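We were asked to recover a plausible sequence for a given structure. The inputs and outputs are reproduced exactly as logged, with field labels preserved.

PROBLEM: sequence recovery
POSITIONS: 284
GIVEN STRUCTURE:
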């Protein structure tokens, strides 16, 4: 149960891609700091071009259980972020139930591997349509409601290290995540006057179902020079107990620490920033 007086007490957070992985960790972390949660996920396949297993309705139900275990309320719904009207509806329903909207974590995203001149149009379009256009639809659905509520707030856009550098072998993903930097920074300037802050985070190597080791290794085996763009994560102690993960990967909970900081008042001066969540590895 949450102790009364958590740093996000009385606030409401809208989180996309919340069924599992990082999205679930963000939902549980923000709830444990006092926020009520609006959680959406597609809970099913996005496209035939995405080859790792899809999240399920049971995954989203598990997020609901974990949030409720903190003592906070949650409105969870199966929504595709490519659907603007459905996102507007869930935001409206969440505000009706919880009274306001303060925090957005635009986290839903997909990844696939392939070379620019070889991939299908569907492979390219899926990544752009979900990661870039879908995230714009999240913002489009949430921002008017945040302005209307008049409480300011914090929007956290989940980009990637691939949003800051070249990543041969998944340039469509890099293009989508670079696009999110432009979305973040322009939005930060547009909504600053309403007390709304907007920042992007840029994680690297988080242990979630999105990471397809075999697909990555197949690309690197064929094109070894691409490895220069994917520096190995230095070995590090795992911070969150009970989550052993792989030593060279970080945990969703470690990313949630950064999201919680950006969501809260401790980052009140930070807007239009790109926050690397990579233990410095991208400086290689
Ligand atoms: N895992 C990493 O190493 C890593 C690194 C950098 C950035 N990211 C980004 O972090 C975010 C979270 O990914 P994750 O690692 O937790 O992977 P994940 O696959 O476990 O989680 C992504 C979630 O988003 C949902 N989703 C995908 N498309 C959707 C859509 N159209 N509508 C609604 N929900 C949708 C999925 O169902 C899934 O539950 C993604 O944006 C990803 O690109 C991941």
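RECOVERED SEQUENCE:
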């Amino acid at each position: 149960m949450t102790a009364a007086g958590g740093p996000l007490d009385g606030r409401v957070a809208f989180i996309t891609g919340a069924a599992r992985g990082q999205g679930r960790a963000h939902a549980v972390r923000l709830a444990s700091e006092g926020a009520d949660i609006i959680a959406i996920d597609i809970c099913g396949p996005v496209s035939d071009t995405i080859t790792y297993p899809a999240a399920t309705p049971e995954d989203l139900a598990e997020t609901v259980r974990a949030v409720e275990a903190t003592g906070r309320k949650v409105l969870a719904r199966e929504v595709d972020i490519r659907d603007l009207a459905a996102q507007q509806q869930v935001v409206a329903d969440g505000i009706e139930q919880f009274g306001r909207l303060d925090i957005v974590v635009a986290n839903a995203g997909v990844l696939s591997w392939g070379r620019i001149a070889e991939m299908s149009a569907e492979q390219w379009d899926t990544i752009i349509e979900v990661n870039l256009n879908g995230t714009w639809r999240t913002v489009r659905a949430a921002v008017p409601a945040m302005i209307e509520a008049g409480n300011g707030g914090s929007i956290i856009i989940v980009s990637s290290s691939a949003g800051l550098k070249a990543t041969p072998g998944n340039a469509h993903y890099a293009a989508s995540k670079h696009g999110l930097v432009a979305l973040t920074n322009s939005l930060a300037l547009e909504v600053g006057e309403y007390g709304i802050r907007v920042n992007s985070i840029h994680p690297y190597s988080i242990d979630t179902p999105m990471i397809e080791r075999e697909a990555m290794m197949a690309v690197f085996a064929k094109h070894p020079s691409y490895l220069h763009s994917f520096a190995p994560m230095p070995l590090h102690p795992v911070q969150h107990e009970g989550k052993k993960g792989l030593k060279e990967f970080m945990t969703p909970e470690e990313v949630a620490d950064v999201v919680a900081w950006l969501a809260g008042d401790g980052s009140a001066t930070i807007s239009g920033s790109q926050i690397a969540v990579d233990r410095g590895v991208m400086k290689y």
